[in-house]
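not sure who needs this but someone in the group chat was asking about DUF1257 domain-containing protein from Cyanobium gracile UHCC 0281 so here u go. i didnt clean anything up, its just raw.
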Amino acid sequence: MSHFSTVKTELRDRQALVEALHDLGHPPAEGSCQVRGYRGQTVTADLAIPQADGVDIGFRLNAESGSYELVTDLELWKQPIPVERFLAQLTQRYALRSILASTAEEGFQVSEQTSHLDGSIELVVTRWDA
């Protein structure tokens, strides 16, 4: 019996997801990766974050929704924060990376970035028109 759980997300941009994972100190392996779980069971994912305890964290693209789903054995989750908090932090970094990419595409530059005590991030972007 598989112990893997799949958690739906709204993370659609692979590059922003990879960058957000790097920001959080979880550089993922990319490609067709095996995510390990309970008693050596594995599942295939597009991104994998190997863990020393053998219970990895993975993300795989759901073709129907177009978003990446978290796949891991939640019963054996041993991260320093709960999975809900992990996803909240990841979603925030993902949003930041997405905004930075889209503003750069539009010719904006970040002139100020401030992290607040409540965990929020404030960005000021500017663009000089000729």
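also The chain has two helices and seven strands. if thats useful
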